[in-house]
Every structure is written in C-alpha cells, then in structure tokens.
Amino acid sequence: MKILIVEDERKTAAFLKKGLEENEFVADIAADGETGVSLMLQGNYDLIILDVMLPGRDGWSVLRELRQRQNQTPVLFLTARDSVPDRVHGLELGADDYIVKPFAFSELLARIRSILRRGPVRQAAMLQVADLEIDVQRHKAVRQGRTLDLTPKEFLLLSLLARRTGHAISRTLIAEQVWDINFDSGTNIVDVHMHRLRSKVDDPFEIKLIHTVRGIGYILEHRQG
C-alpha cells in the first residue's frame, strides 16, 4: 500500500513516514500544496494524509482540485484546526476522515486501515431522506419546505446519519466523527445532542426519521407504518 503525506512540518512528516514504513506501507512526502497536487495526480496512491495549513495553497484547495478531477483517492485530514466548522468543511469537500493534532499514531494507523478496508467514499452534495433535504455545501437542512435552525455540531451529526441512511451508527463512531473524542460510556454527550437534534428534525413533524437502536446507537430512516 502506498501513502502520500502532505505535511510541511519536517519532524511530523518524518515521524509519519517512519511509522508507516514500520507497518509495511510505502510513504512519500510533499512539503507544500502544489507538490502535493502534482504527486497525487501521478503517483497512484492508496491513501493521502493531508494537512490543512500548507505553504502555497492550503489543504482545502488541494482536496477540492483532487475531487474536481474525479480522483476519489481516500483522504485523511491530519491538522491542528480543531473547530467543528473545519471538520464539517473537510468532510463536505470529500475527505474520508479528519484527525486533530496532537494525535496518537496507533489511532491514526487504525483509521487508515479502516479507510482502506472500505475504500473511497464519494460524498454527495445533496442528501435526502423522505421529506428531509440536506444541502451539504450550503450547510442547510430543509424539511417540508421549512429550514431547520441547526448548530454546526447538529448539522454534522445529521449529515453523518444521512450519509448512512438505513444503517445504525454507534455512539462510539458518532463521538469520534463529531467531537473527535474516544467515547466514554460515563458521558451522555451524544444522547444530549441527539435529543436536541430530534427536537428540530422530528418533533414538529408527524413522521419521525431519527430512531434509537437499543444497545447500539441511532439510525436515520423512514419507517413505513
């Protein structure tokens, strides 16, 4: 497996390259965005680790160009930018995962292997479940013609559920993707935010779309009857 590391911090890039090669990956390094794009388009990589803050051009524009060229190589953002809007933006551009620095290499390696097992995921610009429409580019959700007033976290949570419509998503995965934390069974952060999301997505409407899957987590789907 061949991985491209697009990272301008030399120590971080060298650390990543060494760790990946010790785990039987082949790793190349690009220290700026332009070099990264050039290598991406000719290097036939299995996965790309991409920083956001890069010399020349940032990681957002690098990924945008890659997807505009219909290149669906899996991309994992590894960056110090830890705000929820940044994570939402990265995933909407077509990233397969988003990890915030500082990071544990063991977790990074696990995320890489998970991405490679499932292959590249094509992110849709519009998502629809029954009468719920989600415009991921404009950060807008509409149900029965009514715009839903969602916070950035709620929008990211709803988008995560919508991309996996009909499949139960565990609380652990939700915590990792929305808050970038390892889920602690002693906290109810996921359930609290899901309750708030339901109050906006489901409570004003007759048909309920968000359902609890006992012992697992939550699912978004239109259940007949």
From TrEMBL:
It comes from the Bacteria. Keywords: DNA-binding, Phosphoprotein, Transcription, Transcription regulation, Two-component regulatory system. The modification 4-aspartylphosphate is found at D51. GO terms for molecular function: phosphorelay response regulator activity; transcription cis-regulatory region binding. This is Heavy metal response regulator transcription factor. InterPro entries: CheY-like_superfamily, CusR-like, OmpR/PhoB-type_DNA-bd, Sig_transdc_resp-reg_receiver, WalR-like, WH-like_DNA-bd_sf. Residues 2-116 form the Response regulatory domain. Residues 124-222 bind DNA. It comes from Acidiphilium acidophilum (Thiobacillus acidophilus). GO terms for biological process: regulation of DNA-templated transcription. Residues 124-222 form the OmpR/PhoB-type domain. The keyword Zinc does not apply. One of its GO terms (cellular component) is protein-DNA complex.
